[in-house]
Amino acid sequence: MAARLNNGWELAPVIVRAPFSTFEDAVEGLIEELVLAEQLPVELGGPALRAVLDRESMGSTALVEIGVSIPHARLEGVAGIIAAVAVSSSAVYYAIADVPVNIMVLVLSSPALSGEHLNFLSLLSLLLQSDATRYTLQRAPTPELLLESLRSHERFR
User: What's the whole-number mean pLDDT along residues 108-129?
Assistant: First the structure.
């Protein structure tokens, strides 16, 4: 059976709103949403931000040619694989001047799930390569419809 994004991982919460001012602000905003959704313990918020920024300093996770960013990190204390999504028809943040990132998916996982973490990132990247998927996600009016759209596009990938 093929691995799927929905096999045991909850892809939520979702922010459909105006841009953040920076990459770091966007990551911090998504971490706050994971804490509010009780998917990430509040005491892991700071360590999660540092881990993601450290990972990003090794190489950008932005796919600027398609307006997607998938920042990620493995962090002790994270239960399984968790993710949060930010989408904007204009920009979640700007990778560089005049280069918008319209879809950002923050992924955090337990260090014990190295293989699963990489599989999740690979599946997510493949899904977001689709113009139709990105178009639909950027125009979803609610978080619920965005998640349903992700699930629907995954089924037909």
Answer: 92
